[in-house]
Amino acid sequence: MLSELVCYIQIVSAPSVKLLLVEDSPTDAALLCEALSQKGLGGFDFTHAESWSEAATCLQKQRFDLMLLDLSLPDVTGRDTFLRARAAAPHLPIVVLTGMADEAVGLEAVRHGIQDYLIKGQAFGRQTARAIRYAIERKQAETALKQAEANVQRERDQLEVRVRERTAELSEANRALQGEMAQRQRAEEAHREVLRRLVAAEETERGRVSRELHDRLGQDLTALKLGLQIVRKQGASAPRLRESVSKLEDLADTLIRDVHRLAWELRPAALDDFGLELALRRYADEWAALSGVAVDFDSQGVTAQRLAREVETTLYRIAREALTNVFLHASAKRVSILLQRRTDHVSLIVEDDGRGFDAAAMLQAPASQGKLGLLVPYRENRAQDGWDILRG
Question: With contact defined as beta carbons under 8 Å apart, do 94 and 115 qualify?
C-alpha cells in the first residue's frame, strides 16, 4: 500500500505544492509524513498540526495548496471540524482522512465543498494517492480558470475603455459635424437672405424706374405731342412743315407706347396694386393679342389672400419667360396657364401644343453655343435647392 501511495504522489507532486496535515494521532501522522517525505517525490512542503487551533494559526501565517484533515481533534470533532476548516479556508482544497465511517457526515462534507471523504482504514493506499492527486489537479484547474476569468475580465475592461474612448471620439466628431452643419446652414441661410434682399432691391429699383418712366418721361412725351398738335394747328401752313410735324407726332406716339410698355415690363403696376392673378391675366391677354395665339388662363385659390411679394414677382416672371419661349420657339396654336394655390404650396403650369424639344439633348449641349435657355430646378446631394441651365 505504502509503495503505491509513494508512486502516485511522485507522479502528481510539484515543487510548489504545500500540504497542511491536521492529525492528532502521532502514528498516523508519522506514517503519512514518511510517505510524503520519500526522496524523489518532488519536494512537498509539508506542515503538521495536531489540533484545530494550531491548524488555524498555520492558515493565518502561510498559504497552502491542500489540507489533509482528521475529524477527531482534541479541540473539535465531527462535522464541526470540516465546517470550521471550510470557514477558515473557503478556497483551499480539503481531503478528509478520518476513522469516522458515517455516510451522512461524508455526504454533508461533500455538500460543503470537501474534495473527498476517506476512511483511515483505506487511507494509505491507491485511494488516498488518487484523492490527493485529484484535489491538487482541481485546485490547479480552479486557479487556471480564475486566471482565465481574470484575463477575460481584464480584456473586457480594456475593451470597455477603448469603446468609451472611441465613443467619446465619435461624439466629439459628431458634435463637430453638427456644428459645421449648423454653421453651413447659417451661411446658406445668410446667402439666401442676401439673394432675397438683392431680388427685393432689384424689384424696388424696377418699380422706381417704371414709375419714373410712366410719371415723368411719359408725361413729358405727352406734353411734347400736345405741343406738336398745337404747332400743326396754329402755325404750320407750309406743306413740308405740316408733314414734319405729323411725323414728329407719330414718333411721339411711338415713344409714349414704348415707354408705357417698358414701364410695364420693368414692374407692372397691377402686380403691386391688385396681385398676381390679375397681373398674369392682363399680361396673358396682351400676349395673346400680340402673338395671335389663344391663351386659356385659369386660377384657383389665389384671390382669397395675397402671396408674398417675392413669390408673386417670381411666378409672374416665370410665366412671362415661358410665354416668350412659346412665342419664339414652340410654333403653338394654343397655350394654357393654370395658377393653383394649395395649403402648403403654389403651382404654376404653362402648357402649349407646340413642337417641344429634347430635354436630354439640351442638358448635354456644350456651353460653347453661347445660349441661355430654361432654368430647370434640380436637387443637390445635400438636398438643397439649386438651379441648372438648359443650354439651347
Answer: yes
If you ran DSSP here, which 8-state letter would residue 216 be given?
A: I
Cell, residue 40? 524523489
Q: Give 34 or 176, the one with higher predicted confidence.
A: 176
pLDDT (0 to 100) of residue 390:
30
Q: Which three cell numbers stand for residue 91?
A: 478556497
Mean pLDDT on 228-241: 66
What grid cell was written down for 52?
484545530
Question: 86, 114 in Cβ contact below 8 A?
Answer: yes
Residue pointed to by grid coordinates 403696376: 269
Q: What is the pLDDT of residues 333-353, one digit of tens each?
A: 999 999 988 888 899 999 999
Asked whether 306 and 275 are in contact (CB, 8 A), the reply is yes
* Measured distance CA(100)–CA(124) in Å, rounded: 16
Instruction: Between 364 and 117, name the one with better pLDDT.
Output: 117
**Least confidently predicted of 100-104, 230-234, 249-253:** 230-234
d(C-alpha 128, C-alpha 135), whole Å? 11
pTM: 0.41
**Domains of the chain by start residue, with CATH:** 2-124 (3.40.50.2300)
> How far apart, in whole angstroms, are the C-alpha atoms of residue 92 and residue 80?
17
Residue 107: DSSP 8-state: H
Taking 60 as the threshold, does the pLDDT of residue 159 lie above it? yes
The answer to whether 139 and 66 have CB atoms below 8 angstroms apart is yes
Beta bridge partners of 47: 20
| H-assigned helices in 212-308 | 218-234, 239-266, 269-273, 276-291
Cell for 324?
416668350
Strands of 294-300's sheet in order across: 294-300, 334-341, 346-352
Q: What is the DSSP string of 234-251?
A: HT--SHHHHHHHHHHHHH
Alpha-carbon span 32 to 132, nearest angstrom: 12
| d(C-alpha 256, C-alpha 261), whole Å | 9
